[in-house]
Amino acid sequence: MENKLSSMKEKVRILNEAAKAYYQENREIMANIEYDKLYDELQELEQETGVVLSNSPTIRVGYELLSNLPKEAHEKVMLSLDKTKDTEALKDWLGDQTGLLSWKLDGLTIVLTYLEGKLVKAVTRGNGEVGEVITNNAKVFANVPLSIAYQGNLVLRGEAVIRYSDFYKINQEIEDVAAKYKNPRNLCSGSVRQLNNKVTAERNVNFFAFSVVRADGVDFENSRLFQMEWLRNQGFEVVDYKKVDSADLEETVSWFADQISENDFPSDGLVLTFDNIAYGESLGATAKFPRDSIAFKWKDEIKETKLLEIEWSASRTGLINPIAIFEPVELEGTTVSRASVHNLSIMEGLALGLGDTIEVYKANMIIPQISENLTRSGTAVIPEHCPVCEGDTVIKQENGVKSLYCPNEECQAKHVKSFTHFVSRDAMGIDGLSEMTIEKLIGKGLIKEFADIFHVDQYKEEIVTMEGFGEKSFNNLVASVNKARRTTAVRLLYSLGIPNVGLSNAKNICKHFGHVWNEIQAADYEQLIQINGIGSIMAAAYVKFFENDRNQQILQDLLQEIELEEIIAAETEGGLLEGHVFVITGSVEKFKNRNEMKDVIETQGGKTTDSVTSKTSYLINNDNLSNSTKNKKAKELGVPIITEDQLLNWIENGTRP
Fold first, then answer.
1. Is residue 330's pLDDT more than 70?
2. Which of 39, 123, 222, 655 sits at a 20 to 30 Å CA gap from 612?
């Protein structure tokens, strides 16, 4: 008995710690499958011993709230749902009744209150008895009606969620990898509980109603189905549901399972509720669970496989993440061969080692995870050197979580921005390399300097398995990289990211030296300050950049990969378009984009601006009859409107306008 009690105390401690991290701190220290396993083991011990500890998560409805948001007690206590992973158990629970089967959305439960047709209050679930008031935030949810037709006192519950598509987009914009959200639920929680609702509004939070707590004077005809339709008619989006009985329940569960891969909203299971409201309420509740509803958790498809490798991926914050590479297995209809291990603590907890037999599954049937290591050899080696810069690594421990870091400030993994600038449209113009993709390539050690980008074709196997990539994306990337091999001195100079040398200054410098790269690279301080727009600080930074040994090596390697276009003398003083100012509007047909047209004009001595004024020489617009603002302005001022063909005719025939 003493051993069992000791085991129960340890499980309670671990479960409460994991729940606190998840609900209060918006972070995960344990996989869902591991939490559920421990929870079930604790429940079995409680039933076996007859002992339930006071702080056991099996009787605690929620966790204490820690924020500066005001608190308020719920009109009706919000209990958790009992759960099962067995469809037969669901059928037994439903019996001869009819029910509503709906998504169990994985977000933040919210209680809304309407008076006289106006939204007057929104409160989070909190600990089930007391929640946080987030009324101002709820008013900026993407789909919550601020006014409804019903004028009585309405209290309803629903789930606030963030789409996967929005989750990926928001995470991509967060520079600090350590600050990225682990899943949409954590992002939603952080968004809903903001003190500034401007942040909430930017996060595109959606609300899906799933039950009515109170609606004075409304006859729902004793039907949950009627209740849901009524909510829909009031302007609420309701959680997707289907009416079921024991005969079609199993088939309907399968239907929901088939929809998961196409579902943009996170879900961690289903909810089955009796359609007969009075019958459900007559069953009452336990201390923790209502008896009118039950949750169905997906019975995770778990496959055994062999761990082949631990890949270490460096990030711009210095964090080096372990990724498990294993023999490919089919899970939930797709082939998977890799899963994030997140940090050293999780890796050590799983006791991973190469060659181990591991069990893998898809969390919420989407995200590959390791559920168990059957071999537990614990022989995986933590690298002493960064996979990118090969500098010494260090282990840090924060909030009880151990992680591996590269402390080298010069590590290329910490210079993702410079690579992003290098491939940008006005620089080398390489499509298909987003900041997130570049970070992954650097983290895997596939690119360490600019020249390496021109050899991505060697890493097809690694790249096509990256999230968001496939065969077509890879082929497009390689084509874009090869196209960028032929470029101009202006693009190359701008792409290097020399302090304060923007596109305009890069053009002036290249023009001054006749677009001859050796002269551009060897420019000294005195030569530079003679150029219009180049001051002493910029000139000093320019010279310092090209004197740096490391920069010289990077540039030398890069020049082996590219070919600089020869620019004819007409670009310099006395160019065909010198003295003329052009404005471009409308779509372009002969050029890739407006920027390419601007480059051509400026290399021929002309200037480009964005606004039509009395100083404008020509407006370039292929649609002379357009009613655009610029067309109207040009006609008012008597500025000639020409087409791309006319511009190209001048240049090709060597004719001055």
1. yes
2. 655
